[in-house]
Amino acid sequence: MSGSTTGTFLNQLQKTWLTPRVVRNHYFRTIALILSTLVLINARSFPLVWHMRVLRQLVEWNLRKALSPNKRLFMQKTSPVAQDPFKVMVTQKFWAGPDDCDFLGHLSNSSYAKNLDIARMKVCIINLRPFMLEGGWMPLAGADYAFISEIRLFSHYEVRSKVASWDEKWLYLLSEFVTHSPAPQTASSGSRSGTEKGPTPHSALSLPKADPKATRPDGTRLHCLAISRYCFKIGRLTVPPRIAMAICGFGPDRSNWLRSASMQEEGTLRMFLEGGWRKERGWELGEYEEKRAAGMVWCEKLKEGITALADW
């Protein structure tokens, strides 16, 4: 191509594609693309989105109940009937998106608390829905976090929650933030022994026997531990956790659920929760006393430490 031809081509290109209007449109499209990307990335952090994420599971449960042809059977199937409170694990899956991470590319400390709210709501719906239907509510009295290792940007992780222990006022909920490793490490590479059983609610509060950052036998890595403290209320009245859990069906057999369902049909369950439980026996969940006491050893130490720090 000769010099004159090249010059003519460039002049034509400038007249056709590099006009002020074309440049301006290209500029606006670029800005629009950047803004759209930012909006999409941060959509989960917009106002009211957190509320929708927390309440979505509650709305879904109520919708399923409304559409169920047999409400009583639905309640029974969605309640922890004849289950051990220490063995019910509630799992909620998350993704460490850019809106949840800090400038280092790790899940920010505030996001642990934000997403734990969503996981705890799922725990309440799965474990305590019958209590909630009687007007009960569970105020959160405190939460303590132990950060063990970072969760990296774009990682998929789970929050696994289970009962740690309870006393006459407080229920302690243990939550683990974990990710799945490609393959579990062997005992020779520094992980826990393959013959060691997975953590139970009361043993999980024991002193660690291995590196907490190591891959565990189930192929997960622990990143954070959280202990949440709840109490149970009917109006302004406090209901012992053992009573709230028992009327939801927890226990070695179906007897707690059958008694609770009978009172619900008679319309006396709320009166029972408002104080009638003081006159009745058989709601102690004594079958789990050993596990409860073992868990309370560490939960009490945690509470005493926080209280002592407040008085320091």
Automatic annotation (TrEMBL):
Transmembrane segments: none annotated. This is Thioesterase. Gene3D superfamilies: Hotdog Thioesterase. PANTHER family: PROTEIN THEM6 (PTHR12475:SF4), PTHR12475. InterPro entries: HotDog_dom_sf, THEM6_lcsJ_thioesterase. Residues 182-217 are annotated as: Disordered. Residues 182-193 have a biased composition (Polar residues). It comes from the Eukaryota. Pfam families: 4HBT_2 (PF13279). Belongs to the lcsJ thioesterase family.
